[in-house]
Amino acid sequence: MVAGPATSILPSPTLHPLTCAESVEQFCRSLRDKYQAKPAGPEGILVEVDLVRVRLERSSSKGQERELATLDWAERQPARGGLAEVLLATSDRRRPRETQVIAVLGKAGQGKSHWAQAVSWAWACGQLPQYDFVFCIPCHCLDRRGDTYRLQDLLFSPGLQPRPVEDEVFSYILRRPDRILLILDAFEELETQDGFLHSACGPGSAEPRSLRGLLAGLFQRKVLRGCTLLLTARPRGRLAQSLSKADAVFEVAGFSAQQAETYVMRYFETSGATEHQKRALALLQAQPFLLSHSHSPTVCRAVCQLSEALLELDDEAELPSTLTGLYVGLLGPAAHDSPPGALVGLARLAWDLGRRHHSSLREDQFPSAEVRAWAVARGLVQPTRRGPETELVFSSFLLQCFLGALWLALSSEIKDKELPQYLALTPRKKRPYDNWLEGVPRFLVGLVFQPRPRCLGALVGLAAATSADRKQKVLTRYLKRLQPGTLQVGRLLELLHCAHEALDAGLWQHVLHGLPARLSFLGTRLSPPDTYVLGSALEAAGRNFSLDLRSTGIDPTGLGTLVGLSCVTHFRATLSDTVGLWESLQQRGEAKLLRAVEEKFTIEPFKATSMKDVEDLGNLVQIQRTRSSSEDTAGELPAVRDLKKLEFALGSALGPQAFSKLVRILEAFSSLQHLDLDSLSENKIGDEGVAQLSATFPQLKALETLNLSQNNITDVGACKLAKALPSLAASLVRLSLYNNYICDAGAESLAHVLPDMVSLRVLEMWTPTIPFGVQEHLQQLDSRIILR
Ligand SMILES: Nc1ncnc2c1ncn2[C@@H]1O[C@H](COP(=O)(O)OP(=O)(O)OP(=O)(O)O)[C@@H](O)[C@H]1O
Fold first, then answer.
1. ipTM above 0.85, yes or no
2. Is the CB of 452 under 6 A from ligand 1?
3. 514, 537, 561: which is the final residue of a domain?
4. Keyword Repeat: yes or no (predicted)?
5. Could you give the CA distance from residue 100 to residue 87 in angstroms, rounded to a whole number?
6. Is residue 588 part of a domain?
């Protein structure tokens, strides 16, 4: 694990670097002892996972807002150097005494807190000798009120640290901020402090201020200047804006298939049931939907818990095929021995807290002490990892979502006409879920639609479950009125998940029927469960589809599964990911599938906007060339062979360099009809670029439109172009040369080849550098010349 015992980090310290008061040494020792204490049971399992370097980018739909960029699979760079790489991510910063801010993002349950815990554990084991103190602070423990918040209150929050702290410790911290690692875990909990980046941060470190002021001070690098500030947070929501100020951003990748398997094995080792290890793995593998979800450690753990319970009872058991089924299975036994109304009471609490963006509960919030004791005993709520002992949290965010949905499914307080809004499928000004309770829609549909006896009835009894009948009617009416083809693609995916959870043939068919034949997911992240439901839907729809899977971050297995479906007749995907897929199919000897996938792949029209695009295109052509030079003459790639339109829009900084790469592969595109080298930001390929391009004309036999406007071309380039143009005489219909630096000599040389250009209809050549007299002359010479 990146955060695991970071053996690769630095040599273990021989001597503790503190050479100060005994009280400081003692505090350090007790802090280490606290972090070293490993939790018992599954919480103590640590599977090493990757952190991936990511970036935030401006949201395409929400103007200035920033969101996590969706990286292509090949673009993802795991921090293989482990924790050392993450913590030193910004060591190349220009001012070494500056605070460095590192953000670690991930969806709920992806393992951020576990990772943060492992960082403190690694420190406690002497593996981060560059820090004298690590403070790992769960943000939900922070006191949010008042203007009397001091740095000491943040570092030494009551209940968080081992013992009362003396002034000496604090003054040591102030003297050596560079040796402090401050971890703010679950930073999204502080979203009410939104806007702190621009807040005034007030006087020195020890002075009281508001929490917002203190955060401002830390982020503006005025308080504890020189420390390392590590944040973990869910990626969506308002706070993501402040994270754009981080020096480095990583994402917790979650479990790979192999890591999920390791987790299952360790889970059964820890629980002392090693005899069930293999059987549990087989159960998971038999349920591909849950398997696709097992990249989330939270789901993986829930699956293990249910498998353990099932295998105790019955060796022939099977796991359910939905997430709703998983949580009904887990909660069913707890519901049976609950005090009256306990489950519904807890569900209401989950909903109320979630709506207010909270996950922690105080003792006095439970309906009764009995309910609290039951919920703790059943592991539904648990003490916070490092918070005050009196504070509890739901044992997972997904469980909180499930309970919230249970409340919606049963409550008579939710009006019928309000219910559909909780599915969040129709556009609204404000999204009802943003980081919080986002799992609710699927669970709500699952609970309301799945057959009562094995679902809602199993939790609250059949009599109480009948209250969901009306809700089912309301939701059926709403869902059947939805037209899947008109939904924004993120909502379409959510609808597919809801329909999957419903286990209702009518609803499923309705959704399948409305799926458009061309589905573009461009820019929308596709997780393994998304790929799974999408694949099931396409297969069941009994029609053909074409898919655009570019910029979805789809994993190689998911890509292979979707594009391998016989009903997917065409697809677009990121070039590098597609080439990766071909290579793996080739290695696995799946020649037939490889051929099929190559046939379906299209890049039409192709727009190169980055150097990577050009390089990826180059790789594709290289594959084509290698194939055609080998025995395999049928190895032509239709994507290359059939490409008709190619746009190049790299801009002036990278344009010339990238174009010289592009021009080397141009002749491979034998069907190219439209080559557009004009981008709004100007490519500036210049005379040299034009000369290189002209040399490829004899091979571009199908070229009809050539746009060379805004490319810094002078008479030199124009004359070269004119000389080469006759090779395109039979095909070229339109040539654009607007806004270059062509003068009379260049213009006239172009005009003089026009009699040979029999297909040409238009030569657009307006540019202020051509003298007026020459312009008039040219227009009289050939009416195809446009000089306006
Ligand atoms: N690397 C790991 N190895 C073993 N178990 C893990 C790992 N990561 C997470 N888990 C398990 O998954 C559960 C959820 O992880 P964690 O609480 O760290 O997620 P999170 O991303 O912080 O979620 P949230 O945003 O809801 O706070 C943990 O309680 C733990 O049981």
1. yes
2. no
3. 514
4. yes
5. 9
6. no
